Amino acid sequence: MNILNFANRDLGIDLGTANILVTLRDKGIIYREPSVVAYNKETKEIIAVGEEAKEMLGKTPPNIIAIRPLKDGVIADFTATKLMLREVMEKVCKKNRIYKPQVIVGVPSGITEVEERAVEEAIISSGAREVFLVDEPMAAAIGADVRVAEPSGSIIADIGGGTTEVAVISLGGIVVSNSIKIAGDELTEDIINYAKKKLDIIIGENTAERIKKEIGCASPLLTEEYREIRGRDVYTGLPVVKDISSIEVENALKSSINKIVESVKVALEQTPPELISDIAIKGLVVAGGGALIKNIDVVLQEKLEIPVTIAEEPLDCVVNGTKKMLEDMDTLRKVAKKF
To answer: If you write DSSP's letter for every residue of 129-141 in order, what string do you get?
Structure first.
């Protein structure tokens, strides 16, 4: 491999609460797995990461920990995060012949300086040469082809796993931001709680997540849909199978979706009048996994009274934004923080 090829071996990472995505400069997304790690509690030996580790959640013996080390968009368990990142970086770098890459990481806009340092330390200890941090809504906007450098207002809502990040962007900077810890994980929890309280069945996270993806909606579907759920009866403790409808799922999600709508309203209320006129024309761009909730654009448009567009490939917006920054160092220097 020549020196030029080494120069193009830089990485962009979406360090999400639900999933980790890694992109390689000039190649595209090379890793996409759940943000889950399983390791031996005593030896700290990695047992599994990603999808394999996710299948172990709630099923491990006492000496093995299977955990989501990121919560609400930030590092909740530093040891587990470092182990997970080291394993991911080793896999990615070995497979793609990468040595000491420069890494851009998308992080929540509300992250503290201590949390920024924790992310930076985890990435450096995983083999990076240097680290840039960029606010997730900015990375998502760049990944969604929003013209962030223009002297006009744009607004994006990135509904991720742990947080919903709303940002008004102009001239390459975030003018107004609002972050709430209500997003995909909370929506999954809403379905678990609804099933327990209304259907008298206790279901697991994976079942609730499947239901959310298949029939989760913000307003009624044209044709009501049903899905089978398996779990434990609240009263007898015995296995049970029941049906849940899309209308029931809509009711389960309603409160959290209203809070997401409210978070966008708060950002709009804080936006300077000069930028509001631009936003009224261009509207809101929605990114992240939450953008895949059926009819969420319909509800947002109805309640905000501005146009709403779902970004193309909403799950990939943040990581695609880091890729574009790797290919345009001028943009990177303007919007990212170097450590």
So the answer is: SEEEEEEHHHHHH
The pLDDT confidence band at residue 333, using thresholds 50, 70 and 90, is confident
Q: Which of 285, 283, 297 is nearest to 145 (CA)?
A: 285
Contact, 92 vs 31, CB < 8 A? yes
Same domain, 66 and 201: no
**Phi–psi pair at 74, nearest 5 degrees:** -130, 170
Same domain, 242 and 262: no
Same domain, 96 and 196: no
pLDDT score, position 191: 98
The domain that holds 209 is classified in CATH as 3.90.640.10
Q: What is the CATH number of the domain that holds 283?
A: 3.30.420.40
Model pTM greater than 0.70?
yes
Same domain for 173 and 294: yes
Residue 276 · residue 300 · CB < 8 Å: no
* Model confidence at 335: pLDDT above 50: yes
- Residue 280 clears pLDDT 70, i.e. is over it: yes
Inform me whether the pLDDT recorded for 118 exceeds 90.
no
Domain of 18, in residue numbers = 3-139+317-338
Q: At 321, is the secondary structure helix, strand, or coil?
A: helix
Residue 74 contacts residue 115 (beta carbons within 8 Å): yes
- Give the residue-averaged pLDDT of 79-108: 88
Give residue-wise pLDDT tens across range 4-43: 344 457 999 998 889 999 999 878 999 999 999 999 988 8
Asked if residue 122 and residue 24 are part of one domain, the reply reads yes
Ramachandran region, residue 242 (left: φ > 0; alpha: ψ -120 to 50; beta: rest): beta
Report the number of distinct structural domains present in the chain: 3
A 10 A CB-CB count for 114 gives 9
Q: How far apart are CA 24 and CA 28, in angstroms?
A: 5
Q: Based on the domain organization, do 169 and 220 belong to the same domain? A: no
